[in-house]
Amino acid sequence: MTVQLASSSSCSNLPQTNCADCRLAGICLPISLEIEDIDKLDGIIQRGRPLQKKDHLYHAGDAFKSVYAVRSGAVKTVKITEDGIEQITGFHLPGEIIGIDGLASNVHSNSAIALETSAICEIPFTRLEELSVKIPNLQRRFFQLMSKEIAEEQQLITMLSKNSAEERLSALLLSIATRNQNRGLSAKEFHLPMSRSDIGNYLGLTIETVSRIFTRLNKSGIISLDKKHIQINDFDALRSSSLNSCKD
Q: Does position 4 have pLDDT exceeding 60, yes or no?
């Protein structure tokens, strides 16, 4: 599959940004894609007005028509469990694709909600299928994205069932650091777009536990914390925290 993403050098919200100019194209597009193929892909992508915080990109139960690339900002995906509880299933940053959950049944199983002002590229799936026939690398990329989503879901299930509270939060911080690095941004210092409550929901922890672990990591000097601003001071120690077996 493929996707277009994001913006120019600052991940802008400008709708006129195209795939060829996108700083994040290397994350979502097949590296081997030729310029003329990028132009073909760019021709089917729709770029609307930015979503505002708490706006829905799509709701669970909506018909599956498109996949989406986060161009700037951040989006969370949410599922309602059988007992009516909201469960966050993922946090998605610029350069990442969402909406594949609707492919199996032709309806979205999750809702996608903006965590902050976010620009999105919409790729109509029928047009993408047509284009994939002409550009085989797009189909391969789509399969890679599906595989990645399955692997991440399995990893989350394992983490929630076996890891301690500190391991879960440390692993999330390391994941965000790595994803920022892949986007050409700082892995050491970044802003968390999600709330403590959202983090707790995603990791299966109470907001009090999340706050307590942040305080512990901050006091130990492993990270420096200023509200939602994170600076990782000791990656080795944070990785060690993500592998510890101590329970909170």
A: no
CA–CA distance from 207 to each of 121, 201, 222, 225 (Å)? 32, 8, 20, 16
- Give the Cα separation of 79 and 64 in Å (integer): 16
Contact 117, 53 (CB under 8 A): yes
Q: pTM of the entire structure? A: 0.78
Q: What dihedral do alpha carbons 128, 119, 114, 213 form, nearest 10°?
A: 110
- What is the distance between the alpha carbons of residues 17 and 4, in angstroms, rounded to a whole number? 10
Contact 186, 180 (CB under 8 A): yes
Question: Phi and psi at residue 57, in whole multiples of 5°?
Answer: -80, -40
Q: Judge contact between 2 and 28, C-beta under 8 A.
A: yes
In whole angstroms, give the CA distance from residue 132 to residue 43: 13
The Cα diameter of the chain in Å comes to 56
